Amino acid sequence: MKKIINDPKRVVDESVAGFALAHADLVRIETDPIFVVRADAPVAGKVGLVSGGGSGHEPLHAGYVGHGMLDAAVPGAVFTSPTPDPILAATKAVDGGAGVLHIVKNYTGDVLNFETAADLAAADGIEVRAVVTNDDVAVKDSLYTAGRRGVAGTVLVEKIAGASAQRGDTLDEVAGIAERVNANARSMGMALTPCTVPHAGEPSFTLADDEYELGIGIHGEPGRERLPLEPADAIVDRMLAPILEDLPFSSGDRVLLFVNGMGGTPQVELYIAYRRAAEALAEHGIEVARSLVGNYITSLEMQGFSLTLLKLDDEMVELWDAPVQTPALRWGR
Amino acid sequence: MKKIINDPKRVVDESVAGFALAHADLVRIETDPIFVVRADAPVAGKVGLVSGGGSGHEPLHAGYVGHGMLDAAVPGAVFTSPTPDPILAATKAVDGGAGVLHIVKNYTGDVLNFETAADLAAADGIEVRAVVTNDDVAVKDSLYTAGRRGVAGTVLVEKIAGASAQRGDTLDEVAGIAERVNANARSMGMALTPCTVPHAGEPSFTLADDEYELGIGIHGEPGRERLPLEPADAIVDRMLAPILEDLPFSSGDRVLLFVNGMGGTPQVELYIAYRRAAEALAEHGIEVARSLVGNYITSLEMQGFSLTLLKLDDEMVELWDAPVQTPALRWGR
């Protein structure tokens, strides 16, 4: 295992400490228990947004803490759900009196631990709602999931619901928009290589030199099938077909096209994938109204990418364009 | 070779096409010859900034085209200098009557081809100045360089000189600030793994499973030495010592601390490196006034990182903080 780390057991603590030092203008951290919170939290009268999950997917979630997006992010160990304790502490820390929304990727551990924390917060008089993201069309159930997995669509839910909260919407309204974004987002991933979890020390799976995994999960969980490596355009077409069928997306729709790197993919390759996806959507009469390309939800150093389509309406566009000031997503102020 | 590409010969063309589609609000491309240019270029009365070089270092340089940074970027083939022809065309395209600054990383091919283009532009009546960046303290001369290599400091030169041009400074002033940033920036890189150039098809070098290369170049050129892998903090200390000695940086200085990923490094590792660098600078009495952490100048999928320190003055801080709207760096408007 070749990694720029000190002690595998201290990877998350040291990384979060560095993150907080680098972005002290936007965030602060609590260390016992550990979570990342907006520098100015709690914001009185604003719905608080909390997300979290296993580490190793950075910039998700801590990179999205700040004005117009999340109020707090709770990092678990690498690829391991955070316990209820820090989720509860984060929920209390961002409660500005208007309630708190939990944004939870659909993995069994995350869902259970966020539910427990929500129950404890409710006992303390904080109104909590949860939206569970499940945008991955690759598999019905998975190694760690009953139902579909929550993947890159989560970033879009966090941005758009974050803007809704920032403009002063109520907890019901923010939760409703978060649900609407999740319901209109579909994703599919692929991998060329595995990744190595620091405390495991070995690659999470193996792939032959001429194979890729279609429908991979963000923890390296198996997807739909292993296929011989083929040209980028063929891979994109194979990923896009089930996405388009599923909602379905149809001619005349306006979408946000999100090409996400898994962590180790050169940017030139992401844009080659973007090019074909945009071209294919044009062939279907679907208008790409907004785009996002880069490493936004990763699997450590895995090479691969995911495609996400979000069917947009006017309100989603307005909230997507709204100012955001976080370490990883920043525009418009 | 496992890559998300179609034809190795079309990597740059297809990637730049995808880039232009994804960022049509900020940039457009010309294809014969190929370069990326600000959507609103030329800006009348503003000094134009042109950079470029071999592809494979994305987001450098095309990712920095936009308001407050570059006016054009000229991509060569992967790790290969662009020829004078597209550099000349880009220079003409951004000439708003106030002259054009070329920002050139110190590699023999880049320097020669930018000089040739500058001579041709001058013959057409365009005033051109050049700043050649050479911030890498690792080696005196290198495989592709007489003198020090230009590496991550180039990103800081482009941002700060870009802000100087954007506020209306003259060509002499913009060139002067670019030179000052370069003169006050020092960098050092390291790699855990090589990368594979698409048209070569094989890794650019080999490293044993327990080795890293200290002082690596951004094309995988050899650095200072190969060392047994050691903890992140020890690596950071080993990279920081020659940087601090070289300018020198001393107690009371204010700096920008830039931890740059080489392309395949997980973000958790970059922040672990940032943490130690910030701690070590505090031990030296050096104030970290600004930070940048992420993949800003890469070597395809190489795993590794570089450290850059820029000694700041008040004007540099003001120009660093000024609004910038590019695909890869965006804040404050």
TrEMBL record, chains A, B:
Subunit structure comment from the entry: Homodimer. The dihydroxyacetone kinase complex is composed of a homodimer of DhaM, a homodimer of DhaK and the subunit DhaL.
PANTHER family (UniProt xref): TRIOKINASE/FMN CYCLASE, TRIOKINASE_FMN CYCLASE
Signal peptide limits: none
Domain of life: Bacteria
Reactions mediated catalytically: dihydroxyacetone + phosphoenolpyruvate = dihydroxyacetone phosphate + pyruvate
GO molecular function: glycerone kinase activity; phosphoenolpyruvate-glycerone phosphotransferase activity
SUPFAM superfamilies assigned: DAK1/DegV-like
Pathway: Polyol metabolism; glycerol degradation
Annotated protein name in UniProt: phosphoenolpyruvate--glycerone phosphotransferase
Organism taxonomic ancestry: Bacteria, Bacillati, Actinomycetota, Actinomycetes, Micrococcales
